[in-house]
TrEMBL record:
Pfam families with a match to the protein in the record: SUFBD_core, SufBD_N
SUF system FeS cluster assembly SufBD core domain: residues covered: 192-422
Source organism superkingdom: Bacteria
Family label: Belongs to the iron-sulfur cluster assembly SufBD family.
Name of the protein in question: Fe-S cluster assembly protein SufD
Length: 450
């Protein structure tokens, strides 16, 4: 019996969930750790001793909010979330409940472990449906005029399989047909012990014409040799609107590996924002699968890598139906000896005529020793589409810097202003002012230290 098999046997749950976990573990065992020889991991190497990994210890619930980590307390003071969960490692340590009027309408917001017990029918229907426990077969791509049953993904791999097998908790959101949730819902994930790992899973389901915003935040102190792996499944049914925000601000020493995928049906809209600021190594995969005609995906991201941080973003805009639209804008800053990687693909299936897809990645380099690799790609199998992609990498505009300094602004403040302005066109597209203010604060700290 292997170490992870033993851990899996300790996980409790229904038979269907145990079977899915076993599929994930079987896949994990069969695969090698991705290396530079794998195209999707060409510029990123994760050195991990799986035998040395140990689960993050369990944590008890906290009734006094003042006992939460200082960073979480600070965020809770400024958040406008209608309800939120706080998870320390594998356990929910603090929560607030949904307003009664939303519960009466059938909205569900709880941790995933509780959802498996109390809402088994809904969880079983959707869990692993967007980020599967096994590698999807390319033959599931349907013939022209029909709807594919799955979204094939060339980067399915060892870490995603491990997360599928060993996840301990996460968030579950379910919004019934036609219900609109005005205030955001939120999850704050922290880790508090070095040398451990956590595996989490988030599942958000918006039924037909429903609407919700979910904010997923990760934060910790410095934690050497610590791993955070996970998956996010976003189900957007016909005419629904989902806004998903991920803010990763782990402490130094944390390796973050997470796959986030949205499945968008006819006339559905998925707006996503990925913010990467923390950890020593971060690999985030954000993918949108536009299943139905008229589906719309907006994919935004900001990252600021400093010191020796290594940030890797892998994106996929997969158009499987006609008349769908996607727009990707990723902006990053590299300082010191940091490394930034962007690999983005627009994939258009044979029957996805009238596709309208855009992809733009721009990087600002604050140091001659920093490195950035950008690989925008197109795979077009339809002949009546409008697709474009582009990437630019360059230093701070010296003329703009000179203009500011000639007005009496010292160099450090001038650079801070230019960095903020560079990232502003992403933030200006986010209608969540408390989130924007928080991100601007992190950026200010980063610029000050750069």
């Amino acid at each position: 019996m292997t170490k992870f098999t033993e851990i899996l046997t300790q996980q409790q749950g229904p038979e269907w969930l145990t079977a899915k976990r076993q599929q994930g573990l079987d896949l994990f065992t069969s695969l090698e750790v991705p290396t530079e020889g794998v195209e999707a991991w060409k510029y990123t190497r994760v050195d991990v001793d799986f035998d040395a990994l140990r689960p993050h210890p369990k944590r008890e619930a906290i009734t006094d909010k003042a006992k939460l980590p200082a960073s979480v307390q600070k965020r809770l003071q400024s958040t406008d979330a209608g309800a939120f969960l706080v998870l320390d490692g594998p356990d929910v340590v603090y929560r607030t409940e949904l307003p009664a009027e939303l519960t009466a309408k059938g909205v569900i917001f709880t941790d995933l472990k509780t959802a498996v017990e109390q809402h088994a029918d809904k969880v079983q229907q959707y869990l692993y449906s967007v980020v599967p426990a096994e590698v999807p077969d390319d033959t599931t791509i349907a013939a022209p005029g029909t709807t594919p049953s799955k979204s094939p993904d060339p980067s399915e791999g060892k870490f995603s399989a491990l997360a599928a097998a060993l996840w301990t908790n996460g968030a579950f959101v379910y919004v019934p047909r036609g219900v609109e949730v005005e205030l955001p819902l939120g999850s704050f994930r922290v880790m508090s012990e070095a040398g451990t790992y956590t595996a989490t899973r988030t599942l958000v389901v918006c039924e037909d014409n429903a609407q919700v915003t979910f904010i997923d935040e990760q934060d910790s102190e410095e934690l050497p040799n610590t791993y955070a792996i996970g998956a996010v499944e976003l189900v957007v049914k016909a005419g629904a609107r989902l806004r998903y925000v991920s803010i990763q601000n782990w402490g130094k020493g944390v390796t973050h590996i997470q796959r986030q995928r949205g499945d968008v049906e006819r006339d559905g809209t998925l707006n996503s924002l990925v913010v990467t600021m923390g950890g020593t190594l971060s690999r985030t995969e954000m993918q949108s699968y536009l299943r139905g005609q008229g589906a719309d995906s907006e994919m935004l991201a900001l990252y600021f890598a400093s010191e020796d941080q290594h940030f890797d973003h892998y994106t996929l805009q997969h158009h499987a139906a006609a008349h769908a639209h996607s727009d990707l804008l990723y902006k990053g800053v590299n300082s010191d000896t940091s490394v930034g990687v962007f690999s983005g693909m627009i994939k258009v299936d044979l029957n996805a005529q009238k596709t309208d897809a855009y992809q733009k990645h721009r990087t600002l380099m604050l140091s001659s020793e920093a490195r950035n690799f950008s690989v925008p790609q197109l795979e077009i199998n339809a002949n009546d589409v409008r697709c474009s992609h582009g990437s630019t990498t360059g230093p701070v505009d010296q003329e703009a810097l000179f203009f500011l300094r000639s007005r009496g602004i010292h160099k450090e403040l001038a650079e801070k202003m230019l960095v903020t302005a560079f990232l502003e066109d992403v933030l200006s597209r986010v209608p969540l002012q408390s989130v924007v203010k928080y991100i601007e604060g992190i950026i200010a700290e980063k610029v000050g230290a750069a």
